[in-house]
Amino acid sequence: MSGLDKMKSRIFEEAEQSAAELLDQAKKDAEKIVKDAVEKAGADAEHILLYGGIEENCTIKAVFDAKREELADVVKRQLFS
Fold first, then answer.
1. Rounded to a whole number, what is the distance in angstroms from the first to the last CA of the chain?
2. Distance (Å, rounded) from C-alpha 24 to C-alpha 18?
């Protein structure tokens, strides 16, 4: 095997190794993204209630957003009364 063939072989081996490392990292990143998305979707979906065919968003954020003015009045009364 000539020096050029050895060099070519080594370049291909290094390229294959680099590609394998990149693919492994991409797979790990994709798995983390999917896991995070499933957890987030699951956390939000757990708080959706169904009343007679009508969906009610009962996540803590939605409840606070819906009651914002009422809660603000309570806080003002407590602070300034």
1. 92
2. 10
Structure tokens at 64: 């606070």
Written as one string, the DSSP assignment of 12-53 is HHHHHHHHHHHHHHHHHHHHHHHHHHHHHHHHHHTTEEEETT
pLDDT (tens digit, 9 = 90+) per residue, 51-77?
A: 788 888 887 778 888 888 888 888 888
d(CA 29, CA 18): 16
**Across the strands, what pairs with 49?**
56
Enter the pTM of the model.
0.46
Return the ∠ at Cα 74 (arms to 73 and 80), rounded to 5°. Answer: 85
Tokens of 8: 């070519």
